[in-house]
Amino acid sequence: MGKAMFKLVIGLVVGGGLWFTAKAMGFPPVFQWAFFSYAAVGTVVFLLLDLPSMKPQSGWGAALSVLLFFGLLCVGYGAGASLLPQFDPEDEKGKTAKVLGSAKSGNPLDPWKADEVIQRAKELDQKVKELEARIKALGSGLATVPQPGGAAPVTASVPAPGGASGGDILKVGEEQWQLQECYNCHKLRGDGGKKRGPELDNIGTHLTVDQIKQKIMDPKSYMATGFEKEWEKGRMPDKFKDVMSDGEITALATWLNTFKNTAVDTPIPIKKK
Amino acid sequence: MTIVYNKRRGIVTIPIRHLVTFVAFLALCVTGVAGVYAQTPGSPSVEFPYTGNRAAVWIVAQFHTLLGAFILGAPIFVVMAEWLGYRKQDLRYDRMAKEVTKITVILFSLTALTGGLFIFVLLATYPQFTTWFINQFYLVFAVIYPLMFILGTIALYAYFYTWDAWKGEKKGRHIALGVLLNLLCMATMFAINGPTSFMNTPVKEEGISPMEALAAATLWDKIANASWMPMNIHRIDGNIAFGGFVVGLIAAYMHMGAKNQEERAYYDWMGFAGNLIAVGAMLLQPFTGLLLAYQMCDYDFSFCQYMMVEQLSMFFEMQGAIVGLMFLGCNYYVWLSLRRIQGVEQVRMTVLAPIVMVLFPPVAIWGLTTYWIPEPMSLAILIPLALAPFILGRFIPVTVSVHTVMKIGFLMVVVSDAIWLTPNGFAATGARMLDDLQLPESWDFLGKMPTKLGAIFSLVFATTINYILYGKAIRQGTIAWGKIDGISQFVLIFLAFTSIWAMGLMGAVRSLLRKFFHTYNLIPDFTAESFTPTLSYSAWLITGITVVFFIVVSVAVFVALRPVELKGREPEGSPVPAGTK
Q: Is the pLDDT of residue B332 over 50?
């Protein structure tokens, strides 16, 4: 008993030490408690090592013990997982519905409507060509420099590509940024990115709409300076040309082209293809 | 009609009821395939009450996979045990192998039945996709897989029913039959892993659309996709570990039900043997799993984000906790096992072993952060470090006791798992990450992959040292079989339950990686259920499936291994021709 108490005290001291050290080093409270819980687990382990021997169980007593033990494991694993932060499916449902809505209406993902898809793709191609011509005609009036400090870029009213109902190409582009989760790798307006891909606030200075579009459709076409390893390993997925319509890619490229914040050091892309 | 080995005629015959099982299975396959072609594209799917369609498929698929894992893993375990028994002339191995085979025979039939059920549930819930999918792998689903399964069943029954006939001089022949059974089982798994892995990483070609790439692909291209071989390796290794842990479970049940000391001693030994093989295979599991994840991330880097940063990040937090508990569990089993070894106090080990154990996490994390895989320099740091106690230890006279080494081992298992568990932030998705949930910038290396891999290496190293010590103690001391601490049987049950649960969790992760696609980037899932479920929902579902699997295995153990007490009955006399006096 004395040994167990000693271990408990040691566990508390270690846990408390970890808690205060973590606090002093600037760890948020959730990590301080996590470190304390690791010390608690360690204490339980060391208490188990000195547990007195248990006689082998048999008969109905053993059966009951096993059942109780199963119950404990079930509740432990189910409740343990429930205590961790939970992803809210509602966050995803809206996005999925939009992406799949687009697929249902003619993205070449639905193998049961191949003829319809081909016809639709031809129509989209035609629309995109018309749209590109319109964008070029609009010239610099379309792309406005976003305000420093992360203010949203000024949007221009242009018929949306790919049958989008909105009528605002920049809104469609921004929506595609969210739907395709580009923010997972690229930082923009101070949000997202984990240094897996270049920060894009000044991409509009380096690349034209067509060039950005080419990069999205063929990630190997341009390589950002300083991201040689990522480029070689093909870190940027080459799936976007398949999961997005041509119009959606154009909208995204157009929206990205509006980011010309020279205060941000967006690496210069080098043409590779 | 029970037909077995006929000594007089020197032939082996198969019971009629088993032939009926073969025919039923064949019919199931044929009707399954016919059912597939009876479906017309666009036919409405059924709506499963209470669970919904996705959960219905999830339950049946996972149950089938768990049974499949056992019936593929157990034969590897069984043949290894039989061979060891033959080589060491130790009858316990042979008895264990035969008992496990008895249970495997029962679960083999259930695997076939749940496989058929799986196809039917898929057809009912996702008729268009299933039809398309079977069309893509028609040869696999209609010919190769059923054929391999039937050949495997014949080999298993032949293996089981020749056990007593092919002994002594014929034992080698029996072991060869076991090897053939394993080859068939392995081929079956490789065949079905083709379509399974294809759903995650279908064929793709640079510059052309996925549909065009698919149209140009041969069946072999579809099977040998990017994640096929890593999945084969991960599953072979996982099935051996799984088989071993389930053998440990069987031993625990039987140990508790043992009527005498002799039986208790035998099942104590069986638990030890099962656990030893399981842990040996488990030590490789994190690495084969990492290879599979690495290959998938290489195929599409967004998988990596989805797993480690986004929707599934907390699934990996749970995985870290579960795997850490398993490492603690198997080390605790060794600790309890040591208590029944007489003379264990004399066993000592070089002081370098605990020193390297303590040094392992920081050195491994530094090495892997500086030289991330596949750079060979990382191995050039880790291998000499891991071998130091065994090579340099010979020249250092200072030694420490087995208990000291093990206690430091436990400490390092806890520390390593704590490192593994520490996430980049306590948020379910990167999108919801706030500063007060995230690691400080100067400590963000704790949440990165090199740190996680360093922690895994450290866990494996500490456990290996403990098992090497255990082996040393067994050689130097005397084991009092049957005298093991009663808690150890609960540890065996815990390990089996946890390994099954971990398998369910990781299987869910692999399936969920397809996001809102049935086949990634090719066939979208247009149903309302194509979203990532919460970890809590998934955990309770996995728990339910694990419980059902446990009940089935427990019943199989009871049916196959229960002690039969023959009641006295009248001896059957020789038939007497009518009319004789």
A: yes
As a whole number, mean pLDDT of residues B497-520 equals: 94
C-alpha distances (whole Å) from B27 to each of B20, B32, B39, B140, B443 are 10, 8, 18, 17, 60
Per the CB < 8 A criterion, the answer to whether B332 and B476 are in contact is no
First and final CA of chain A: distance in angstroms? 73
Percent of chain B at pLDDT exceeding 90: 69
- B524 at A interface, C-beta within 8 A: yes
Q: To the nearest 10°, report the CA torsion of A175, A181, A184, A186.
A: -50
Domain with A145 in it: 89-271
- The token pair at A240 is 């976007």
> Based on the domain organization, do A23 and A100 belong to the same domain?
no
3-state percent helix, strand, coil for chain A, nearest multiple of 5: 60, 5, 35
Residue with the bigger pLDDT between B202 and B39: it is B202
What is the reported pLDDT for A115?
45
Closest Cβ–Cβ partner in B430, B440, B501 for A77: B501
- What's the total number of domains in chain A? 2
Model confidence pLDDT, tens digit, residues B435-471: 788 899 899 899 989 999 999 999 999 999 999 999 9
CB contact under 8 Å between A82 and B536, yes or no, is yes
Euclidean distance between CA atoms B346 and B168, whole angstroms: 39
C-alpha–C-alpha distance, residues B255 and A142, integer Å = 79
Three-state DSSP at B386 gives helix
**pLDDT digit string (tens) for A18-28?**
999 999 999 99
Residue A59 lies in a domain: no
How many independent structural domains does chain B possess? 1
Three-state SS annotation for A130-158: HHHHHHHHHHHHCCCCCCCCCCCCCCCCE
Nearest CB partner across the interface for B256, out of A34, A57, A181: A57
Per residue in A208-250, pLDDT (tens digit) is: 999 999 999 989 899 998 888 888 888 888 888 878 888 889 9
Q: Cα–Cα distance between B373 and B363 in angstroms, integer?
A: 15
pLDDT at B408: 96
Are B334 and B466 spatial neighbours (Cβ–Cβ below 8 Å)? yes
Q: How far apart are CA B432 and CA B287, in angstroms?
A: 30
Residue B323: inside a domain: no
What is the ipTM, given to two decimal places?
Answer: 0.85
A167 and A44, same structural domain? no
Question: Cβ contact (<8 Å) for A57 and B521?
Answer: no
Q: Using the structure block, give the residue that is written with the tokens 């403990």.
A: B466
pLDDT of residue B581 exceeding 50, the answer is no
Of A45, A70, A236, the CB nearest to B414: A45
Q: Within a domain: residue A60?
A: no
Question: How confident is the model at residue A118, as a pLDDT?
Answer: 45
Task: Tell whether A24 lies on the interface with B, counting CB pairs under 8 A.
Answer: no
Cα distance between residue B340 and residue B360, in whole Å: 30
Taking residues A68-82, what's their average pLDDT? 96
Residues of A in contact with B430 (CB under 8 A): 184, 192, 194
**Any domain includes A23:** yes
Are A220 and A129 members of one domain? yes
Q: Which of residues 551-580 of B touch A (CB under 8 A)?
A: none
DSSP string, A73-137: HHHHHHHHHHHS----HHHHHHHHHHHHHHHHTT-TT-GGGHHHHHHHHHHHHHHHHHHHHHHHH
State the DSSP string of B7-39.
TTTTEE---HHHHHHHHHHHHHHHHHHHHHHH-
In a domain, B495, yes or no: no
pLDDT level of residue B252 (50, 70, 90 thresholds): very high
A42 lies in the same domain as A93: no
Name the pLDDT band for A104 (thresholds 50, 70, 90): low
Give me the domain span that covers residue B387. Answer: 341-479
Both A36 and A160 in one domain: the answer is no
Residue A54 domain-assigned (yes or no): no
